Model the fold of this input.
Amino acid sequence: MHHWLESCETDFLLFTQTVCPYCTRAKNALAAKGLTYTEVNFDHEGELRWEVMRETGHRTVPICFDMRGEVPVFVGGSDHLLIYLD
Done:
């Protein structure tokens, strides 16, 4: 997970899965605000999912980080992101 946090050069970092309406909702919300994001799909990174869950305590997708500051900010899931963006 730390590799992704350190190398991300977009506004947000999203950990997602392919079949996930909440992930789509999060991506659409970011796009509507003109914010960029990097998507890491857990379907292709199985071990990473458990690492991210351990680090954040968040068990569902998406798992969203705001990368715009000096340090990444864990936002939470889709519902949390929508509130955060308001």
About this structure: The domain at 2-85 is CATH 3.40.30.10 (Glutaredoxin). The chain has a mean pLDDT of 96. The two ends are 27 Å apart (CA to CA).
